[in-house]
Fold 5-methyltetrahydropteroyltriglutamate--homocysteine methyltransferase.
Amino acid sequence: MSRQIGSTVLGYPRIGPRRELKKALEAHWAGKSSAEELEAVAADIRAGTRRDLAGLDSQPTGTFSYYDHVADVTALLDAVPPRFRPHDTREGTALQEYFAIARGTRSAPPMEMTKWFDTNYHYLVPEIGPDTTFRLAERTPVEHYTEAVADGVTNARPALVGPVSYLLLAKPADGAPESFEPLSRLDDVVAVYEQLLAELADVGAAWVQLDESAFVQDRSEAELDALRRAYERLGALRNRPSILVASAYGDPGPALDVLARTDVEGVALDLVTSPDLADRVAGVTGLRDKTLVAGVVDGRNVWRSDLPRALSRVASLLGSVGELAVSSSCSLLHVPYDVSVETALDPAVTARLAFAREKVAEIALLGRALTQEGSDELRRAVSDAATAGGASVRDEAVRARVAAVEPGDRTRADYQVRSKAQADRLGLPDLATTTIGSFPQTSDVRKARADHAAGRLGEADYTARMRGEIERVIELQENLGLDVLVHGEPERNDMVQYFADTLPGFATTSLGWVQSYGSRCVRPPILHGDVSRPEPITVDWATYAQSLTPKPVKGMLTGPVTILAWSFVRDDQPLGTTADQVALALRDEIADLEQAGIEIIQVDEAALRELLPPRRADWGAYLDWAVGAFRLATGGAADTTQIHTHLCYSEFGDVIDAIDGLDADVTTIEAARSRMEVLADLEAIGYSRGVGPGVYDIHSPRVPSREEIAALIAEARRAVPDDRLWINPDCGLKTRGYAEVEPTLQAMVEAAQEARR
Ligand code: GLN
Ligand code: ZN
């Protein structure tokens, strides 16, 4: 058995090339298929993965997950919160319990979900308390390892989240004392990992991969010391596989030096996000006798690698480390399976793309080239790529326009001036009521859209159907007595894809699905060239809605940062430049909406916080371009046009200055679940424009009472004066049903009217 890693990936997509897992999970949850049927689909997906990875020198196992790889460790440690075990008896199967923590039960809400680093993947946040018990579960990574061995794989490497990152990504369990930190349970968790490593050694695993990516975030001395302690202990085990500690999504900083001083045999680094890391490696003496797994192929974007550059980056490390291996920068979980199935894509774009399968081929080739035997092959591949792959589509007019942007283009008149002009024009009451944009997407609406996309429903019929829906939604809002209306977004499948579908510079795939969480997948558009907006996108729908009512109807756009965050974005120019191109496209749309008589325009930036880099030191540079792009999009609006923005979260302490910096006239935010806490933060920095803290938690099907909403409004009024306070739900209503939405909006409007009196 080889002890060399050679070429590898840190992880692989697991939903199946045709979303087989999604379908199998949903059938199982709906009671339409048995656990055995689900397990058979999962086994097929794993077998497919092993075939896809066969060309690599070392392949990870255990990267398959029924729902989430962090939840897998929760199950592995048997650290399931007590609410899922009501009588402390083990009823049901391990799989049932696993789905219970992910999806909740009638009596127990699911574990919280949160973003995995700065990606659009969500993990289930472990809940760890002083009393959490840890023990090795019956089903462990041994299972998938031996399955791979039985399938003839001789170089399998079990991979899982490491003990320190697991605890750093956890939150204190309900009822834990104020000062409790999950990391204080490290010794108990490491004890279970010790047992696991011994079992893996017993079945013959040469390597184990432990992902410690939490160290690409800023970490305290105590946390670094925890890392040292954990790996000194695991390193000291006599019966164990070689340990590869992987860090992805950024620069592990001082954690690299800590690991280098332990007895672990290998370290994997993300040299795509942090190319400078390569220069530091030579100075870390402890790496001289370790394996360095160089992540030079981008695991989270879809572009073909510049192979000669990747090779020279790896080769520059020769001599500084013991063994050298080539890898993806992170798990390939974030990219779709296969470019070759995308037959409808423009071949000039396809030629530039590499999804998971193509990336594996690149890595295998780099691995061979590194050992010389593949260098002719590499030369051929490089010259093939050069002839096949075009460059990004250039649009000189767009480039000239971005180059000519001046600071003034990102600046509107003073807010005092604007707010006076808007108040005169709009004449809205204090505590104005509105919604965030979408109304429930009924199956009728979705079917009409699907039929239209498939060509079964002609343009005129489709327009008539959507207009009918808009009429219904406007009438409902008028009856409810809302002050600022929306058209309801029935024509939008998704807030980013809708725009990507019409803007030059974007392509959309047919099977390019990636997992967002559990069975939920998204198909990010590919932003491959210069972006422009040759014609209006939303103006017809907006003006139709406005023609139906004397009340203002908000124009509804998705902001530049969110469009970038939820797309695969070209990497041949700074993100800020690409964001400015998108911003100018939106700026044109705003101008056209104004021209058509729309008085209020909302520019959603749901993902502003999501793209924050893992390290604080990088936040400033990010927020500069992100805020700058939003301001470029909105900076041309007249003083009399009220610009709203909507942000999809309540913990925005980290971006609070940026939110102020957006300079929107009104900001709506999530607040119902945190009971308006966010308002105090905003007021503390002197935010002085309109704000609409959500008073209705749309994440739950519960219908809140009028009293409950009134209490939240009262809370909000203590922090914000009535003339700047807006009353609205937490987010769009598209995932809810009318049966909940109508009474809740009714209660919301009544509570606002009552507060006004
Ligand atoms: N306007 C969008 C909607 O209401 C906003 C959604 C979001 O922020 N996620 O659906
Ligand atoms: Zn939202």
Remarks:
- The mean pLDDT is 95.
- Residues 416-756 form a domain with the TIM Barrel fold (CATH 3.20.20.210).
